[in-house]
Specification:
mainly alpha, Arc Repressor Mutant, subunit A, 2 domains, two-stranded parallel ribbon, 8 helices, globular
Length: 190
């Protein structure tokens, strides 16, 4: 147990390292057994095969990100593996590095200063806005809010951070930071 997360590790020798899919199949048996005893939703992510302690960290982060994606879409008791596009691996690599964690902390510091709950609201709002290519209407739908409420929150985000959301490089960095933060903050089983 690590916080609210459960970490399962499967080891093997180099030529016999299991594939992500074979691990997902094996873990489905464990998930079914646990499901009978738990009323709470559980989201399971499977990371890629890695070597050493640093590899364990990368794989655990990949699993956490994959599981957080399930949680974001309400897919209880599902099992997600590292995506084929490689996005989960890229996010895990950024989240697993000291430089990446530092950059995320710096980018999101204006919101973190508000406290955990208000920071989460601001980060969720910013993520929805960025993920919908700047559409207030679509962001509002994702957040189950009126577009005016999203507009108000975005004005507050700009006031707190002085960020120019018209800058494509900054938007990209913020989108990565929000996605990683939300993934790592999700209450998931990895």
């Amino acid at each position: 147990m690590i916080g609210d997360d459960v970490l399962l590790v499967r080891s093997g020798t180099q030529p016999d390292l299991p594939t992500t899919m074979s691990v997902a199949v094996d873990i489905s048996v464990v998930v079914e057994r646990v499901r009978e005893d738990l009323a709470e939703p559980v989201f399971v992510g499977v990371g890629s095969a890695q070597q050493g302690l640093s590899g364990l960290r990368v794989s655990a982060t990949e699993a956490r990100i994959a599981a957080a994606d399930l949680a974001a879409h309400g897919k209880n008791w599902a099992i997600a593996t590292v995506d084929s596009s490689g996005l989960s691996r890229i996010l895990a690599e950024i989240a697993g590095s000291v430089t990446g964690r530092s950059a995320i902390a710096e980018l999101l510091a204006p919101f973190d200063a508000l406290g955990a709950e208000k920071a989460r609201i601001m980060i969720d709002t910013l993520a929805a806005y960025l993920d919908t290519q700047g559409s207030l209407r679509e962001a509002a739908q994702r957040l189950h809010l009126h577009p005016n409420a999203v507009g108000y929150r975005l004005r507050r985000i700009r006031e707190l951070s002085s960020y120019d959301l018209g800058d494509p490089d900054l938007r990209f960095a913020l989108q990565l930071a929000c996605r990683i933060r939300r993934s790592l903050s999700a209450q998931v089983m990895t």
